[in-house]
Amino acid sequence: MEKRLAGKEDLALLAQYGLQDADVKQPVLLKFRQGEYVLREGHAIDSLYFVLSGKAKVCLHSSSGKQLLLCYFISSGILGDLEMLMEEPEAFATVQAVSDFECIVVPFSKNPHLLNHSVFAQGLARELAGKLKQRDTYSATTMLYTLEERLCAYIVQTNCNGIFRETLTDVAGLLGSSYRHLLRCLQKLCNDGVLKKQTNGFQIVNQKMLQERAGDLYV
Known about the structure:
Layout: E1 2-5, H1 8-11, E2 28-32, E3 37-39, E4 47-53, E5 56-61, E6 67-74, E7 78-79, H2 81-86, E8 94-97, E9 101-107, H3 118-144, H4 147-158, E10 163-164, H5 168-174, H6 179-191, E11 195-198, E12 201-204, H7 207-214
Antiparallel strand pairs: 1-2, 2-9, 3-8, 4-7, 4-9, 5-6, 5-8, 10-12, 11-12
Helix pairs in contact: 4-7, 5-6
């Protein structure tokens, strides 16, 4: 992770939430590399994270310790908004960078006045409404779509330069599948000419077919 003071060009993002430079105290810019954790469920959180660029996945653990796919991907918006509003000191979910991921980080303790900022509060409400809609959509896709469709959507979102190389046991848990069922599904995609097995993962051979099988899931 890299950290530096947020510049004026970075802080222009905050104008989308009705905030000017003078409205925010001690903002910094954090850059996370692919695979690094932005937040961990149950760990301390004391800031708002305004997403500047990149993509991350959002996961929640069940009581049994298994990971569950939540909204799944985030490439814009705010992290930490729910924790701020509920005055929770710990993160509700785990957020992991899928690509290089940059955020403007604004500490709660230095900016308690933000909740009294009417324009920002309205933007925060829209943000939370959007997340609720995403989660409802995910619940529907889990029940209505096949593993192949969900897996293809997952690969579309997480591949790096055409290579899918995530840990398959983790993927099975995230997609609500057994490991064996996931392997059978991957083998079918290889047999159909969508993927090709390599030593470092799976190469996407037919991007168009992969996207067609994924549809608009998790977008």
